Amino acid sequence: MKKEIIICISSKGRLKPESLNIFKKKKLKIFSDKGERDLVGYVKNKNFNLKILFVHAREAVDALANSTADVAISGKDLLFNSSTNVQKKIKLYKDLDFGHASLKIFKSIYWIDCASLLDVSEIARNKPLKLITKYRLLVENFLSEKNVRNVEVIDSNGATEIAV
Questions:
Q1: pTM strictly above 0.85
Q2: How far is CA 131 from the centre of its chain?
């Protein structure tokens, strides 16, 4: 019996088109039972069977960590924002060089004297700050490296831009 290899790729967003392009370049056609919006796809080959799970990019990292997937295409930001226990279970095989993300810190328009992280550090010294982000661990590590203290970083799972 041929081994089934389970691969997780993003079900939407900027990672999906380039992920699907990898299969196209290798001439591996993904079939599904329910059409384009199906969350499960298959690639049949004489040497192997691939089962493609279309999931949220965060879930792809978790699927690797809990061994429900063999391979995943996801963002390094999501991997590095995971717990160290999750990170220890995953080997970064190849950097695919697409779907780039950047970490940005935004401030209130009323903070007219705030132009740098040094200023943020001064403000936080006088009054504890709250930051909201989808990447709590990355932000905490970044602020720690920049010696910014007295900041509470809060997890966001939704529309972070309106949380302010």
A1: no
A2: 19
